[in-house]
Design brief:
This protein has 145 residues and is an alpha/beta fold. It has a domain at 48-139: Nucleotidyltransferase, domain 5, CATH 3.30.420.270. The chain has helices at 2-5, 11-14, 26-42, 89-101, 118-131; strands spanning 70-74, 80-82, 85-87, 108-112, 136-139. Strands 3-2-1-4-5 form a five-stranded mixed β-sheet. Helix 4 (89-101) runs parallel beside helix 5. The chain is elongated.
Length: 145
């Protein structure tokens, strides 16, 4: 009886295994592949947040830029968005001037609905110039049929 209490006999005492210190990476790889596919599918949908019907025009494509682009969007109702934040015409110039003061020197992309009056577009372009930007581009849809 004393021998069994010390663990020297019986089946359990002889089959003792060491700790398994290997990491199984297969589930990790599976999750990463699923996330990669999700991001590949959703990334093109996240490019523009405000839906506008761009005017059709035959123009050369704009060159690709490094980093984040500064986009101004004008909706059909004349509402102006800086990136995805709604902004009034009075706030536009000071906000753009603040962006210029941070050292941002790239082009501003203006996306406007095709039915936006030219007066609003002209006011936005004037605000861009007055804020200190040297370059602005009007984004159009070149897929005209």
């Amino acid at each position: 009886m004393a021998m069994m209490m010390q663990g020297g006999g019986g089946r359990r005492g002889r089959r003792r295994r060491g700790l398994n210190s290997e990491i199984n990476v297969t589930p990790f790889v599976d999750v990463m592949l699923v996330l990669l596919i999700v991001f590949m599918v959703t990334a093109p949908l996240l490019v523009t947040g405000i839906d506008v019907a761009l005017p059709n025009a035959q123009a050369r494509p704009l060159p690709q830029t490094q980093g984040e682009v500064l986009a101004l969007t004008i909706t059909e109702e004349g509402v102006i968005y800086l990136q995805e934040e709604e902004i009034s015409m009075q706030e536009l110039r000071p906000r753009l001037a603040a962006i210029v003061s941070t050292g941002y020197s790239q082009r501003v992309y203006v996306r406007g609905d095709g039915v936006v009056p030219l007066e609003i577009v002209a006011q936005v372009l004037a605000a861009i110039q007055a804020a200190g930007f040297n370059s602005a581009a009007i984004v159009t849809d070149s897929n005209a049929g």
